[in-house]
Specification:
The complex is a heterodimer of chains A (418) and B (336). Chain A has ten helices and 18 strands. Chain A is α+β, with helices and mostly antiparallel strands and 418 residues long. Among the domains of chain A are: 52 residues, Dihydrolipoamide Transferase (Irregular), CATH 4.10.320; 201 residues, Chloramphenicol acetyltransferase-like domain (Chloramphenicol Acetyltransferase, 2-Layer Sandwich). The longest helix of chain A is centred in the middle third of the chain and has 22 residues. Chain B has 336 residues and is of the alpha/beta class. In chain B, 38% of the residues lie in helices and 21% in strands. Chain B has a seven-stranded mixed beta sheet, sandwiched between helices. In chain B, helix 1 runs parallel beside helix 8, helix 9 packs across helix 13 and helix 10 crosses helix 11. The C terminus of chain B is likely disordered. Classes of the chains: A alpha+beta (418), B alpha/beta (336).
Chain lengths: 418, 336
């Protein structure tokens, strides 16, 4: 018997609301099938299943909001002996459904097959739990339950921003004043927060994750300017030969170069589990996607280092469209191992990122811009980009970070090999 | 109704006890000819004679042990120890004998002994005369422990302690002796074994006992001017603790500040705080706060001694910290 649990879709997620079940008990499940739709601060997420078998029972009904880690359904495993997979393994896009041997390795759960000396972790890493735990007094929590108030949506005024009785009661009074409150409180209806509310919640979750990052992670920052002359020329040649729909944007070259450069400093592709670094074998670069109206999500581009550029281009475009439409998959939200952010199209020359916990590094690319450049002792005009690295000094040192940025530079000098 | 000092209230209690029952004797250093280190037994030697009011040699172990023996033999001794610091010399007698004999004799022998002792700091008598070690005795099964915080309790607690068949330690905070208050006739149903709400309030519960009570009441008055309505609970009996009163109060106010002149580590404040957490966690709207004495021997220098002890200002600050929303309002200049 396997348990299908509410996944953690990023360091900032605490609970999710089941919007729909897409399978019913008795249905056959294949790895990668979308089993449920879950509403979070980031939008409605398609939650995928990573245990093949038969859906046995649905435990959490539509409309219910449950904490991360809650068993939502049980699955009778197929041919293999039943084994609970608390978190989806990161490898492989679920749509492919290939039967290739996939070593399961979840972001917050060490893979059983990995030889690394890491004890089995709970549903989410301890550090993670501490970050997402709501600061609310016991009395206020109980009152919130009595009044049907969602504590996550209440602003705390107590010591250290703790949510107190008064805060809960005022929130309840405000909700009672609003006509839609009854609809939200009623269990059968699906509580879909209006966009403004969702934005506010997203702002708060970003605030929590970034404040935690700056509080806990000793960042160091490196920058280097990279000559993109060869890369841009190669790109222009390649794009001229293919239909518009198949053209590549420079960003995808940068993305792949960053993913490949991880070979030089594997400790940058990792998570910090609260006490030590846990290396990730595969690079799932998280791309930061800005949303309309504010906020951003970081979605994983699976297997960034090994997939062809064209495929990465398609994936990035698709992710961007779906992120902005509020339709994301659980694995995309949960799997990223190293964030790559590019503010190039906003016109800035460099971006010094804030690491997204529990990751340990973030790579930034600025605008590609023409600059006077010295080549072979002569001055010429070249397209250049400033690449930055913000990394966790608990895990890596500037020397290693420097090797990484140097590798990004080298890789971009041979674009045809990317 | 008469206005008397705490010191006079203690003296009246002693006098009443000696007059009421021939078995009552008063034993201690300087209780006779000198009239008591805090003048609580002035005149009693003349009135009751040297058989009943006995000056003891400077050996706490000896005269407390004698008191225990006298109690076993049928008397009702009141033993005075100058300060709780000195009582440590008699700790073996109190903990190993007085507290255990009823248990070890299967109820055949009782030790109906009352040991009065002064406690507390604030008089610049330095670290060997100033500590608040009430919790040492409150820790021990077999003892009952009272702390008189008001003039009325100083007047009436002694008789109740003498009437109890168990050894009772009765604490008098040395700073309280000159405090004056009106004292009525003994209230009907006077019960020192339960806590008392000295000031009702809605926003937070201040739990205290003994010498800290006046500071807590002063803090509550200050807070009232800021719109914070604090309830003040006087524990009175430190063993057995009347947790019911504390828990009932916290269930109403949802916030608790424990004020104890003892040290914070492993102190009474820790006991009260843990009990609230065990029994009423879901009533709490803020962490339980403690205001205790600095973790150091009580300093001699006046400014250091003052800084080490709980003060009305520190108590008020701790209450503000747990009462949400009102802190900012209090800090802002008021318009009216």
């Amino acid at each position: 018997m396997a348990e299908f649990r509410m996944p953690t879709l990023g360091a900032d997620m605490q609970a999710g609301t089941v919007v729909a079940w897409l399978k019913k008990p008795g249905d056959v499940l294949r790895r990668g099938d979308t089993l449920a739709e879950v509403d979070t601060e980031k939008g409605v997420i398609d939650v995928e299943v990573f245990t093949a078998g038969v859906l046995e029972a649905i435990v959490v009904p539509v409309g219910a909001k449950v904490p991360v880690g809650t068993v939502m359904a049980t699955i009778r495993a197929g041919a293999e002996p039943a084994a609970a997979l608390p978190l989806p393994p990161p490898r492989g896009l679920p749509e492919t459904g290939e039967e290739r041997p996939v070593p399961p390795a979840a972001p917050a759960t060490p893979a059983p097959a990995t030889p690394a000396p890491i004890p089995p972790a709970p549903i989410y890493a301890p550090g993670l739990a501490a970050a997402v735990r709501l600061k609310i007094s016991p009395a206020a929590r109980r009152r919130a339950r009595e009044l049907g108030v969602d504590p996550a949506a209440v602003t705390g005024t107590g010591r250290g921003g703790a949510i107190t009785l008064v805060d809960v009661e005022q929130a309840a009074a405000r909700a009672a004043a609003a006509p839609r409150a009854a609809a939200i409180a009623a269990p059968p209806s699906v509580p879909m927060p209006p966009p403004a509310d969702r934005q506010e919640r997203m702002r708060r979750t970003i605030a929590a994750a970034m404040a935690r990052s700056k509080r806990e992670i000793p960042h160091y920052y490196l920058a280097t300017t990279i000559d993109l002359g060869r890369a841009m020329a190669w790109l222009a040649d390649r794009n001229a030969a293919v239909p518009v729909a198949e053209r590549l944007l420079p960003g995808v070259l940068l993305l792949k170069a960053a993913a490949l450069a991880v070979r030089e400093a594997p400790e940058l592709n990792a998570v910090w589990d609260g006490e030590r670094v846990v290396l990730r074998e595969t690079v799932h670069a998280g791309v930061a996607i800005a949303l309309r109206g504010g906020g951003l999500v970081i979605l994983a581009v699976h297997d960034t280092a090994t997939r062809p550029l064209a495929e990465l281009m398609t994936t990035v475009c698709e992710l961007t469209v779906r992120a902005r439409a509020g339709r994301m998959k659980s694995s995309e939200l949960a799997d990223s191992t190293l964030t790559v952010t590019s503010l190039g199209d906003r016109g800035v020359e460099a971006v010094y990122g804030v690491i997204y916990p529990p990751q340990v590094a973030i790579v930034g690319f600025g605008r590609i811009t023409d600059r006077p450049w010295v080549v072979n002792g002569g001055l010429c005009v070249r397209p250049v980009v400033t690449a930055t690295l913000a990394a966790d000094h608990r895990v890596s040192d500037g020397h290693r970070g420097g090797l990484f940025l140097d590798a990004v530079d080298r890789l971009l000098q041979e674009p045809e090999k990317l | 109704m008469t206005r008397i000092t705490y010191r006079e209230a203690v003296r009246q209690g002693l006098r009443e006890a000696l007059a009421a029952d021939d078995r009552v004797v008063l034993v201690g250093e300087d209780v006779g000819r000198y009239g008591g280190a805090y003048a609580c037994s002035k005149g009693l030697l003349d009135e009751f004679g040297a058989e009943r009011v006995r000056d003891a040699p400077l050996s706490e172990a000896a005269f407390v042990g004698a008191g225990i023996g006298a109690a076993l033999a049928g008397l009702l001794p009141i033993v005075e120890i100058m300060t709780v610091n000195f009582s440590l010399l008699a700790l073996d007698q109190i903990v190993n004998n007085a507290a255990t004999l009823r248990h070890m004799s299967g109820g055949q022998m009782s030790v109906p002994l009352v040991i009065r002792m002064a406690t507390g700091a604030g008089r610049q008598v330095a670290a060997q005369h100033s500590h608040s070690l009430e919790v040492w005795y409150a820790h021990v099964p077999g003892l009952k422990v009272l702390a008189a915080a008001t003039v009325a309790d100083a007047r009436w607690m002694l008789a109740a302690a003498l009437a109890d068949p168990n050894p009772v330690i009765l604490f008098e905070h040395a700073l309280l002796y000159p405090v004056e208050d009106d004292v009525d006739a003994r209230p009907a149903g006077f019960d020192p074994w339960h806590a008392a709400i000295r000031r009702p309030g809605r926003d937070a519960t201040i739990v205290t006992y003994g010498g800290s009570l006046p500071k807590c009441l002063a803090a509550a008055e200050t807070l009232a001017g800021e719109g914070i309505d604090a309830e003040v609970v006087d524990l009175r009996c430190l063993r057995p603790l009347d947790v019911g009163c504390v828990l009932e109060s916290v269930a109403r106010t949802h916030r608790a500040v424990v004020v104890d002149e003892g040290w914070k580590t492993c102190g009474l404040g820790a006991e009260i705080s843990a009990t609230i957490a065990e029994e009423r966690l879901y009533e709490l709207d803020a962490p339980v706060a403690r205001v205790c004495t600095a973790e150091a021997p009580i300093p001699y220098a006046q400014h250091l001694e003052t800084a080490a002890l709980p003060s009305a200002a520190r108590i008020a600050a701790a209450v503000r910290d747990v009462v949400p929303g009102k802190t900012a309002a209090a800090a802002a200049p008021r318009a009216e």
